[in-house]
Amino acid sequence: APESCSEAPDCQTRVGSLKHTLSKRQKTPSFHLSARGHWSIWPAFASSQTIPKTPRPCCAPEERQPGTKPALLTGPKPLYLEQLESYLSKELQSLDLTKKNSQELKLQPYREIFEFFIDNFKTYKPLLSAIKNEYEVTLAHQKKMIRALEPLKAMVTTVSEECTQKILALQEKEKEELNMLKQEKQQLLNLIDHMKEENTSLQTQVEQLRRSVAEEYARYLHEHGARKLLLAKLNSTCSERLDMTRLQSQDVKGEDVVKLTLALKVARQDLTEAQVKLNTMTADYGDVVPRRDFESLEKKCSDLLQKMRSLQKDFDQLHEKYETLLEIHRETAEERDNFCAELQRVQCNFTPRPNWEKCSEVIPGGADRWGWLAEGKSSDQLVDVLLEEIGTGVLKEINVFPGWGKGDKVPVYLKHEGEVKNKKLTKKDVVNILKDVWKEKMALEQQTGKRSSLPEFFLSYLQKKYGNASAMEWSYTLYENMRLCRSNHVLSSFYDILTGKVGEEQYHSQNQLVSNLQQELAACDSSNSGFLSSEHTAVREAFPLKRRESIQELVDASRYKLDSTEDLIDYASLFKEDEEGNPEPFVAKLRSQYVREKQEYLRELKNKLGDLTEVKADDLMIAFCTIDPDIDDQTLDTYVGLAFQAQREQPDQDAVPVETVLQRLLAGDVRRGGPSARAGNMTGSEGE
């Protein structure tokens, strides 16, 4: 049967009805035969037209009469053909061609007509059936290819739009950066021009001062020459007056001429000496200016030189900055070109980001529960959450678990042969059971005073509570739930300790850390109001070794439910858990910081060990003391014993690979004993 008939349930009924109708109406043969028994070649487009008869290639030679005119054939349209056309017209008129699949509906009557045609022409039925089947297979293949290509077309359209948006965003960002650089460059150019103008102005002032000094110097020389002439005139006037006075006194008193002549001679000698001395001083000090003017000009010149040196220094600095900015601009342009090339290469090869909102359609609880599960998580964490949801959903459908056997490598709590019944517990039930296991174990250890193995205690607890017959059922069910639910702290921590990935001390250390912080906050609440200010230093006092960024992360996590205007924090609510054991963001952040700080501590230890592939106990102790000088001897012995799985009293320990040492320390409770050098430097800078 054709595929079209299988898609339409009433196909066979309609075919049978049409055959019954045609058999009743067809009183004459539904086709015409030629003289040699061939099918009638009556054309479909002629009802009663005259048709020239031409010989067919398959006719006998005697039937071919060359040179004669072709005979004319006349005949009505076959009844069976009219019935088929009538049926086809009715079926097409009854179809609703406004639907989306109107073409497929329109094709169905033609399939039925073709099947009637095949059924009535028995001789050609195999060939016509093969043709019809090949067409049906080809149509089915084409439909399948179209359905497969439709999602790819939508994906290509979405990816193209996202890439276009990213390119436009990058171009806008680059335009903003280029505009900022151009503005900064223009500002620097304006500043350089301003400095050049100031330098030119200062040089003009220096030239003016030099001209002023030269003018003053010329004026002083002129005054010096005038002074010489004045002194000469005064000397000559004084000499004349003395001569006149002597002559008058000589005439009046009649003094001795010889005595006066001698006095005159001596006076002239003194005058000559004074004149020589005056000329010598004039020659020696003719170019000298007064000290007061010289000191004043020297001070002005010194100030101008100092100012010019300062401006020159500023100009040199600005020039260096300008050259640096040009270099940075060139490097930025190269990086931009490289990023553009990298972007184009990535756009050709990148994988589209998943649309995580689609998960809300298949996750129980809908969009609200998926929004709660996906809040604040990365893509890698969302994959874990999705796998956990899928795994728990599959786990509920499993009725039995295959047993692991009783081999030596099988854990004691999973040693069983055969199938084990699945208890189908909820996450809340699993969390309550594991918390009760911890409670019973710690109570037993307080009574006995020694630490017990968690796998053995886990099995004994289940046997004691549920009996030996059902213990393995509970053990397998709890184990599978812990293995799948990695996002839950209670389940994941119990699973890691149970399988030996993490030491039990790390679990107790984290709980003790949370308990100490809770007690510290309660102690700071002197009024017992249950609230503390977000600016309180209780967290800093409880964790003096944490960096400022870590303290700020804890404060932000404590304020995630508060408005921006609120300042009081309900510190008791920070330590609450929901029914599935999930803590508040504050405690989750505290535990993540514990793991991160331990990884940083061990990373410093690895860097201190350098390129060593194996390390001895003494070398490990030296490395610990170097990166953590405040570590005490007891803690150091504990860390070394954890790394070498032995005590310090065994001096002949062999070297252990560094990677093994780091893995063992990572599984244990390893913390810094004192502030690191970087934290100390940061604290010092904050104090300043």
From TrEMBL:
Coiled-coil ranges from the UniProt annotation: 167-212, 264-328
GO cellular component entries: cytoplasm
InterPro entries: TSNAXIP1_N (IPR032755)
Keywords: Coiled coil
Positions of the Translin-associated factor X-interacting protein 1 N-terminal domain: 85-196
Region of interest (Disordered), residue spans: 52-72, 669-688
Name of the molecule in the record: TXIP1 protein
Encoding gene (name): Tsnaxip1
